[in-house]
User: Fold these one by one.
Assistant:
Number 1:
Amino acid sequence: MKNWYKDVVGYQIYPSTFKDGNNDGFGDIVGIIDKLDYLKELGIGLIWIGPIYKSPKVDNGYDISNFYEIDEKYGTLEDVKLLLKECKKREIKVIFDLVLNHTSDKHEWFIDACENVNSKYKDYYIFKEPKVIDGIKYPPNNWKGFFEESVWEYVEKIDKYYFHIFSKKMPDLNWDNKDLREEMYAVARFWLDLGVDGFRMDAIAHLAKDTSFKDAYPLDEKLVLDTSKFSNRDELFDYLKEFKEEVLSKYNCMSIGEVGGCASVEDALKYVDYNNGYFNMVFNFDTCWENGAYGSIDKADSEIKTNVKNLKLLFKKWYDGIFNKAWMPIYWLNHDHPRVISQYGNINYRNESGKMLGLTLLFLYGTPFIYQGEEIGMSNVNYSDFDMFNDVHAKNFIEEYKSKYDKEVILRFLNRTSRDNARTMMQWNDSENGGFTNSESVFKVNDNYKIVNVENELKDDDSILNFYKKMIFLRNTKYKNEATLGKLEFIDLDNEDVFAYTKTFDKKIMVIANFRDYIVEFDNYIQENDIILHNYKDINIKNKKILLRPYECFFLEIKGF
């Protein structure tokens, strides 16, 4: 089967804030269809659409109550069929999120399992008897989940606890049960048969649990987070082998597993090795927080600075470990991260740094994923009050820390790190709500939408958006082999300011990118080489060195290599 996913540029759509097609204030499938020509003209060959299944939306749609039904907020199954048809016309592939680890507590399986002692669905989940000490019922063990609470929740009607590593509203499925596995394979086949081209598989590392359910160490702790009890366990790969044999191998589909932020290269190869792997790629988050912003509540804005050297070393680590063994996705952010122009770029140099970040990413090793709005330089929010934040994590953070820190300190931190940064409305034009909707919405638009929007940038030949079009066109055409097959070599790894590399196949190309808001010197690679793209009007050379101005970048073709 052709590895088509290596030849495309991907684009992540967060459906609730991408485009409102029916003017109810909520993004939907019709809105996505309306913007397919825009994506095609940008050069996109693959879209990843976040979960649009029936859901109470406790966790932004990742808590699914019906795997076969589209949530009414997003539209209907007929809308999905039309979307797939229209994408096929434009030669755009479509992948959906597939959630295999858990369901919503509103799923009919779980409701029946909690209501009926003899339910056939009780083994679809993990139920355990209470631990009884002196007549008092306690959870079966001391395990803590990812949401800072016990993984166990009591159901009085059946006198049992159920297992959940995320919210108690999201009970984990029991992958030890063959019938459950067959149900989930049927779900995947349903969407692939409908025409979906593959999946991004959420929380895939957690399907297998330590079925001894023994307490975690230290035993004297009330709750202990020990991810080895439910992450990357050996049994998981038996499930994935079966899933590949029963489903994925039958289709020319793309599969990306989300394996968490701590996966090593060795872990990743277990999933995606060309010879023995189960998926085409895995997402890791190594390169998403290399500016000290994560956990930075005590830092001033001036202390947030991109660690360019380590950023290069991280990309190199993955390339050295993966090249010729597996494929990987490359990206600056997704729906859970701050805007990259506010992290690694600079809103005072929006045009320059937006272009530089796009160029740096697009020719590295792997399939690039652009997050909606990245191509126009959308940036972080600048909220002035707590009630402006929508994300549940931000709200919980405010509640926990408002008695410990001044309001201004918390706002500074959330404005640089909150997931709300990536979830503001897509900025299509300078009309009210940025052209996202013609009605009121629970979502907010960034206050810079009058200037930063698609319509403005389409009219400006020097815009970030038009620069992206040129970059993607070159990646898709003249320099396709170099981008997808070329050998990657990093230049001057110890340089603290400049990110530079070459890619060599039939031709040799070079990317030079200054990540700083000040001038830095760099050895002169300009003479005798063709400048294909450049984000300044002229070249500044002194003593045979390039003087790279703030966020200046070059895309070169090296002559006579």
Note: Residues 48 and 283 are 13 Å apart (CA to CA).
Number 2:
Amino acid sequence: MTPAEVLKRHWGYDSFRPMQEEIVASVLSGNDTIGLLPTGGGKSITFQVPALILPGLTIVVTPLISLMKDQVDNLRLHNITAACIHSGLSLHERNLAIDRCRIGKAKLLYLSPEKLADDNFIEILRQIQLSLIVVDEAHCISQWGYDFRPSYLRIARLREIFPHLPVLALTASATPRVVDDIRSSLRLRGNHTFARSFDRDNLSYIVRHTDDKDSQLFRILKGVGGTAIVYVRSRRRAVEIARTLADEDISASFYHAGLSAEEKNERQNLWKQGDIRVIVATNAFGMGIDKPDVRAVIHYDLPSSLEEYYQEAGRAGRDGLSSYAVTLVGPSDKATLSRRLSESFPDKDFIRRVYNLAGVFLNVAVGDGWNRLYDFNFNIFCKKFSLPPVPARNALDILTQAGLIEFNEDRRSSAQIFMLVDKAGIYSASLDHETERVLNAVLRNYTGIFADYTPVNEEHIAHCLDLTPQSVYEALIRLSSARIISFIPRRSTPWLIWTTAREDASRIPIPRSVYEIRKQRMSERIEAMKRFVWDNSQCRSTTILEYFGEKNSPKCGRCDVCRQNPGSKPHYDAISVSSTIDYLTSGAGHTLQYILDQLPPSRHSEAVSILRDLLDSHKLTMRNGVISKAI
């Protein structure tokens, strides 16, 4: 099949987005390739399409466990087999994923970079036919990048072992210096780099200096239609602002890393479906989220770099319609941004103390703990030793960067089940009545359990059977004891792995590359963020484009700086009601309410008038409440 045929068959798209087809063609030609696609540009398609055409397995190295799981689940929806391996899986789960790759039951294998340090795993890869190596979030391999991860340097090992395989490196935000570093670190051959401009011509960057952020937030949300994301820097603030918005009759909920998997999925789905208009979130929200009709992204708190800002702001307006990226700036924000540097890089003595106390907390002796995973309740840890949470969390991050531990706050709290017997084994099993009812409910509701570990919701099963969740849990334990299922109970706490045996804290190495160099580069990124926010002499879009290496860019005419300049083109034809209606009534069309939701309330009467004229002239039709173009 051709790339276009694969795209149509599995995703239903008639054509690629800009630059996707060129990247796919380069990969299929066997070239080492760098793809720079802004947030929402469709990076995953550029390796998933080749993976289905190439004969062997595609390896995808990515740093986010949650993103791995989301991608594997999404691929299943498109009838594409994939697997993932990371340190949060049980041995049985890892072995099952490897077996599926060995026998050709998976076309893509997602890996965390830490897995590449395992010689046994590398030996397994030698026995599998591989076709492509993909490095997602490739900026993580660069010490010049905003999210450098030393574990990414291990990817170069794959080049040594499989020198004939092409490598595709993908990122959404990279400066020219970072791109050069990616090419060098991955030892890429040739200069096959494909980049879309970082310009978003439908996105207006607005900075609002205010003493009352809440009032500005209300004003923006009541003046701009459609769904929105409000980014904050703390879980507490996410909860507070969501409640404040609800008090103002603005439908809102909050999202952060401390929620259970069920809570995250529920809120994400309600927001994507339009049942919740505003999601107030930390930066835990957004990666892999593809909601095209977000009209506004509002930064209540400042991010620490333009890379982070650009990725988060870029989640607005993926459908091509006019949208807004608004930054709210208070009197203390500049000092807060500066203080973030010292919090991110606490004193080395403090870092060593955190390392020592983690060993005490987990009862790991010096010389012990290597490659063992422990539940690690971070809040109790900080409370027990009177540690300030923000510097303590950053100390754990630095220890992770140094390769001494791996700390992960991803809470996989869903229970998971894999069926160990076939249907004949189920019918021959001797079970009590309640356990049999639970098993039958599992079989009815979760069809994938014969092929792979599948998340199950014990509360849902309990509701269906009029049982308590505890009764369902005990029945699943009995089924596991009878070797009918493999049952992994929910885990609600973060975890920590000792990637080396615990050492004497006074002797642990904290490399200059992990501490001093990263601190200097974070300082440079914070200064760039300050220029974007407090320099009102240059177009906001131009400032971003220059940061990413695009020189001599024209003024956008849409940002707040351009709007204050009489020489700039007028801004608020940016939302042309006619063009919005033309776009939204293409294809299957939309309801009147959906169309109005994409426009500010002040333009609703204008939109209704235009729609009425188009319907009266038979250029549009309305069927079952859906307005679309007449055939």
Note: The longest strand covers residues 203-209.
Number 3:
Amino acid sequence: MSKETKNTPQANKPKFSSYWIYGLIVVIFIAISMLSGNSGLNEPKKTSLYQFSQFLKDGDIERVEIVNKSVAKVYLTREAESKEVHNKGRGSSFLKPSPGAADYKFQFGDLQNFENEINTLIAQNNLSTRVEYDTEGNVWEMLVNFFPIILIIGIWIFIMRRMSAGSGGGPGGQIFNIGKSKAKLFDEKTDIKTSFKDVAGLEGAKEEIQEIVDFLKNPEKYTDLGGKIPKGALLVGQPGTGKTLLAKAVAGEAKVPFFSLSGSDFVEMFVGVGASRVRDLFKQAKEKSPAIIFIDEIDAIGRARGKNNFSGSNDERENTLNQLLTEMDGFGTNTNVIVLAATNRADVLDKALMRAGRFDRQIYVDLPDVRERKEIFEVHLRPLKKIDEELDVEFLAKQTPGFSGADIANVCNEAALIAARKGNKAVGKQDFLDAVDRIVGGLEKKNKIITPEEKKAIAYHEAGHATVSWMLEHAAPLVKVTIVPRGNSLGAAWYLPEERLIVRPEQMLDEMCAALGGRAAEKVIFDKISTGALSDLEKVTKQARMMVTVYGLNDKVGNLTYYDSSGQSEYNFSKPYSEKTAELIDKEISEIIEEQYQRAIQLLENNKDKLTQLANLLLDKEVIFKDNLLDIFGERPFGKKEDVEVIA
């Protein structure tokens, strides 16, 4: 066999389905029921007891066969077969019974009376007619009679197979295997091809999780010194940061079997199924050790017990969690099975699950910084076939603050779709910027009907945001302003926020003032306000409340925080402060917002002519960029050089 022939993949043979057998059986039974009537060619002609007596007296009957003590089959003599009375009603010759078949048949009542009557007629007429007896068992009739029962049983089996489809424990997912684990096993030799080089960014998390790989590869290195291999690691982070990808990379690096499932896969409508699946999962993992069990979204079963079970009844989720705690505590030091779990709500997990000895390590997977975003972009740009050579990946990383790995992957895919929609031969810089705008602000709605008065109000509103943010030292630098409707907004302004680890009060106040610049501009120009500032008011109200109740940045409330990192406060019906304190909190929040609102008004009053010039430019061009603000306002008055490239 040649090398080329060996490498040629064989055609996939169609899988045989047992449903064909069920269908064939049903067709057979239907055919039997249709053909089991008395319409066959060899069926004897029906007659009556009176006619039978006349035929017997005339000497036309050669023999009578009594079948099953209830039916009489009549066989005529050769002379009688030619009589017109017996051929009447048969039609053409091909309808005559075949040789050896009965000519007539009929049912009679009592067997003893029938025998007496036949014997009397034979004796009176000196006939040679014979009387014979036979017993027949009709298998087809029995099957037809039992067909409804068989059909009901078949339908029941079909429904049970469909209900339990997908449950583990063998092909077809029988109902008896519903307690089996639904974890998907990825074989280390064929299925797992992800490694740490496929995971861009997350340097801190990768460094911490590298130890787990070392534990699985070289367990003796630690056990020889008396150390115990960790039993679990919890990956905590916001959605899309790469927790699941990191877990797969651990399995790929360690070259061990990888059991993957979601926390919701344990819970079923049947009582006890969750605990049974947990037992079966750990049993399979121990048999294939060293191995990794990965439970995604573990908060589905790992929530704090007793917090939301107000009825006091049996809680299947709590039983599943109890079994999971027992299995993790039952590991020996040499089982070489490590449990990885991922969640973005670590605050609601049960304390027993978080203690040492179960999830020994908590690995925080944060949003990527600008350097890590650049690495992630480089990974997701590889699948794109044609990219503009002038594309600056570092520029893209700076334009996407706060984006997770999943968001960046979405940006790359959206940019490719936009380039294809435009008919471009390569994906360029503007395609990526349009993709970011699409994801952040939504799809442009240029055909939305807006009156000239509304358009003017929107222009001044957005110009107010841009003007105030330009005049404030700690406000985020502007990138682009548009009055083209996007998504649910009638206008939008794009900023490039500074990535800070800590935030000071003056920085938060400047951001709140810039957010209120839109409403302040409406007040300054039109002396009226509108509903267009809803999202701005929501943002500043949340920021002011965080300053007062969470970060302790208010002098009158003091250095207090009412934030509960455990997440248990969400189950309480009472506030952690008195009504008097609640009034003080509301008053301070209102004063902070009003102070920044008046500050924004004052800034716009001082720069009213420039505000008007910027709004008119917006009405003319609909979209303006940072260089337009430089032409109108000049350099920002703080002596800070913004490390931001202007979008052209």
Note: Residues 15 and 554 are 70 Å apart (CA to CA).
Number 4:
Amino acid sequence: MIGRKNVIPFVVIAVAIGVGGNTVHDVYAETTTSSDIIGSGIFIDSVNVSQMTKEEAESEIEKYIGELGNIPIQLVTIDDNSVSVKASDFGLSWANREVLDEAAELGKTGNVLERYKAIKDLEFGNKVFDIQLDFDDGAIRQIIADQCTEFDQEAVDATLVKNGSEFSVQSGQKGIKVSVDESVTKVKDYLTGFWNKSETLIDLVVMTDEPRGNEEELKQIKDVLGTFSTTYKSSTKARVENVANGARLINGMVLYPGDTFSAYEVVSPFTEENGYYMAGSYLNGKVVDSLGGGICQVSTTLYNAVLLAELEIVERSPHSMIVNYVEPSSDAAIAGTYKDFKFKNDSEYPIYIEGTATDSRQLTFTIYGVETRDSNRKVKFESNVLEETEMVDLITPDLGLPAGTMQIQSGHKGMVAELWKIVEEDGKEVSRERVNKSNYQMSPRTAIVGMATGDLNVAAAIQTAVATGSIDYCKTVVGGLQAAAEQAAAAQAAAAGMLPIDPGITEVEAPID
């Protein structure tokens, strides 16, 4: 019995060796002397790697992957709009590089019979190894988010229109938009599982964008949560226009719960096309003319209305110098993108912002919503000045201006101040909380004094006045000189039948931002 078992393997080997006329020695020789060369009839995808070294085969496959990367792929978005990209734009890569080792080892590993069978199989048909491709999720996402969402049709939220004391509701409108997350998954699954490596179309996933708000919800908005007014009666015509323009741009905005309002985003850009004029504003502690000068009074007035409505302040910055239309620390500046006024509707209901600028030059913002605070609860705010830096005079003599001429521009004290929120219930204070602490630079009062005169006595008097460093003293001296000059000029003019010319003293209030 034992002997019969020992005979069977020998018979099988003998039969196997007889097939095709090859011997075990033949197979062994073929698979050892050519171990660095890939066998005949072997393909990796459509690349024939027969009789190549692994390095040569790898180079050919990389070239093939590069060619695949140039194949156009159309991403179909909304309304049959499409974005054309190349496969390489999606971060195309060769995922199963180990397939090269498998191809190189075919017929060269295993026992003699396994190697023999692999070689004989290649005589009757090619062996094709599949290439597995991979794509980068981040690259796919960026293309879809940056290029394909341009065709999104945003939903239009329901909103309010205020006519006099009445509100009317305007219904919203549905939108349609690309679902970026779902589209990334669909694109990658298709390219890695179904792509036939030719130009193709892929329909992105789109979804309905539902508008926010409805008539029932918006009809609840009727309570005044906070209102605040400032005046700008001394402003120039250009500044008046800027204030009115800012109020117009903000007026009528509806913020839903969770929305954040940015004053800069709403009132910019500061261009003539957007309704702005050149007017005085603060920049790095100086007064300069800029498009939109005065817009900070808009953001400041709104800031105080928001404080009274007790909504969440997200961002607020003081001016570089004190302003004169609100108490210290009650201002909110806008300056480029580095100073903005932002607040969040952290209430449970939508809010409506009303902004008005009247012919009497009064600016008012009112926040409407649903009042949820107790009627016996009152909120007020107090400004507390901690430090003051006295304003100084800065005098500049000018030989190009006639003696007796002064151009004066007012300045401001420097200041450190705090704003406090005080809550009262039934007329009694129940809490006191510091809202902010603000630092304001001192702005000197400046004067340009004319020095051009042929009268040595007049020149000496003005030089002495300038040397004191006091604008008020200069005004007294120049005023006296003017009075004397006026008398003399009047006498000469009377004799000649002419009116005298008075250079005069001009005083300009420093522009308020």
Note: The chain is about 30% helix and 30% strand.
